Amino acid sequence: MSLIFVFVDGLGLGRDDQCNPLFDTGYFVFSRLTGGQSFTKQVKKYRNRNLFFTPVDACMGVEGLPQSGTGQVTLFSGINSAQKLGRHFGPYPHSSIRDYLGKDSIFQKFQREKGSCHFINAFPNIFFEKANKKNRWSCTTLMTRMAGYPLNSVSEVLAEKAITAEITQSAWKNRLSMDVPEITEAEAADR
């Protein structure tokens, strides 16, 4: 069995009206994920043979504005880290909840079941320079490293084994002046 986990940070279920850009069910991908429902707070769980969609409350029972650090640790570990910490925290994982990514992450759980994982995102050299200098890693990169998987760089992008954050590689090519080809969204999806 294969599992593809797509995570888009900051994308949530908004109001059930035209103020929400995802209200319109014309967004094919979101409509497919929800079984034709609008991508709003009113969406219900949906399951078919190949897909399971369930809405979650990003506040997780803790007052305040949800943050990436506690939210992503929770998504990747199944442990309500905002509740454990007593507040929302981010964008990086707080030192007192980092270990959940090392012991209880989805990557760790797959490894215990003799499965394998691949984190497809790639990072330019400047990312590694800054992250190593400050020893500051995002939840996804820390989870990947703690599970012993390599983080992808330009060589994996060129070998067509990884994709850049903006999918088409255009930012690496145009903003970072890196010698990588631009690709289509369909080519990225094939990877």
Structural notes for this entry:
By secondary structure, the protein is an all-alpha fold. It has helices at 28-33, 68-77, 81-85, 99-103, 106-112, 125-134, 139-146, 154-158, 170-174, 185-190, and strands at residues 46-47, 52-53. The protein has a two-stranded antiparallel sheet with strand order 1-2. Strand 1 and strand 2 (52-53) form a beta hairpin. The radius of gyration is 18 Å and the shape is globular. The mean pLDDT is 90.
Question: Descriptors for this entry?
Answer:
2% strand, 191 residues, 2 strands, single chain, mainly alpha, two-stranded antiparallel ribbon
Short description:
With 191 residues, the protein is mainly α. It is built from 10 helices and 2 strands.
What's the total helix number? 10
Distance between the termini: 18 Å
- Sketch the topology as an H/E string, one letter per element: HEEHHHHHHHHH
What ranges have pLDDT less than 50 throughout 5 or more consecutive residues?
A: none
Secondary structure layout plus pairing:
Blueprint: H1 28-33, E1 46-47, E2 52-53, H2 68-77, H3 81-85, H4 99-103, H5 106-112, H6 125-134, H7 139-146, H8 154-158, H9 170-174, H10 185-190
Antiparallel strand pairs: 1-2
